[in-house]
Amino acid sequence: MTPRPPSVSEDVTALPRGGQNAIGVTLGLLGDEWTLLILRQALQGTRLYGDWMRALPISHAVLSGRLGRLTEFGLLERVAYQERPERHEYRLTRRGRGVWPILLGIWAWELSHVERHAEELPRMRHHGHLFEPVLVCGGCAAPVGPRDLVGGFGPSGTWERSLPSATTRRRSASAPGHLEGFFPQTTALVGNRWSCAMLGAAFQGARRFRDFERQLAAPPVVIADRLRTFAELDVMTASANGGYRLTAKGLAFFPVAVHTMEWAQRWFRSPEGPALSYRHTACGAPFRPRHTCSECAEPLRGGTIERVGQ
After folding, report:
1. Is residue 79 part of a domain?
2. Where is the HTH hxlR-type domain (predicted)?
3. What domain range includes position 254?
4. 3-state DSSP call for residue 10?
5. Measuring CA to CA, how many Å separate 106 from each of 132, 188, 247, 271, 290?
């Protein structure tokens, strides 16, 4: 069941008992290339409908639909700024501003691991120097990778409840190896409900075909197709023992996954409890993902990052 959108943008959304959890709701909302691009422009200061139309190769129908959905779910607020004639602008809420670590992770992954894009990706500068974001533990500030965490599903966390609804998914036609998409390979990973689930299962340790089949209850033909796509993207590869393993490129997508998880559970909550729960093995604290600067090691904030170029 898709939750009713929040009526007040700063409120946490209560999800129905036994329904889609925070992860499923968030993937259904953010697993869409146009939505990510609209939010990217909003974080750069875009507020007016016409400015989005000029900045993006987007149709009126798609832009209106995405802005409406982002407003319903509390990431944007539609505010009148002129009375005669009445005109509105779309302002980011605190919930909307909170997606910047996800977009920063996508930018860094695409810049480092995807060679071709429809537009040249800008570099980013922090306190005057080019940098890459580093994923660290919010408790002890140590760098973190997938193997540094323990945990998994919480009280509301089953694979069935974590899948985005197929009927509400809206995604662009981006495909692996093509230039149509601005975030082509990110969209291939998060713009398909089974890709999301299989990537999550791989981060939780699934390695064999039967592991994915058993955990996800997905048809074998779907699993085979997704594994083939992951291989084409060089995100997973067949291992010598007959299983599959994440490549360095696949492991590098982990910051995007954990920041999405944190944002999801910050703003959408099931009455049974969290969907996912992890601890950092080194310090034992509940894991809270944070980005730091690769050059100065300071925590990154949206307002301290400057675009260079496009």
Report:
1. no
2. 15-118, 175-272
3. 99-308
4. coil
5. 12, 12, 17, 30, 14
Distance between CA 123 and CA 121 in Å, rounded? 7
Phi-psi category of residue 18: left, alpha or beta, with phi > 0 → left and psi -120 to 50 → alpha: left
Q: What digits encode the pLDDT tens for the residues 141-177?
A: 999 999 999 999 999 999 999 988 754 334 444 434 3
Query: Is there a domain that residue 52 lies in?
Result: no
Residue 29 included in any domain: no
* Number of domains forming the structure of the chain: 1
Q: What is the C-alpha separation between 292 and 306, in angstroms, rounded?
A: 15
Residue 186's alpha-carbon distances to 159, 235, 258, 260, in angstroms, are 21, 11, 14, 13
In DSSP notation, 269-310 reads E-TT--SEEEEETTT-SBP-EEEEETTT-PBP-GGGEEEE--
Query: Per the structure block, which two tokens stand in for 139?
Result: 């408790």
* Cα Rg of the chain, angstroms: 19
2 inside domain: no
pTM, whole model, 2 decimals?
Answer: 0.89
Residue type at position 189: L
Q: Do residues 135 and 255 touch, judged by C-beta distance below 8 A? A: yes
State which H helix or E strand residue 24 sits in.
Answer: helix 22-30
Question: Which CATH number characterizes residue 196's domain?
Answer: 1.10.10.10
> Which residue type, as a one-letter code, is found at position 145?
G
What is the rounded distance in angstroms from the CA atom of residue 150 to the CA atom of residue 147? 8
Q: What is the pLDDT of residues 32-63, one digit of tens each?
A: 889 999 999 999 999 999 999 999 999 999 99
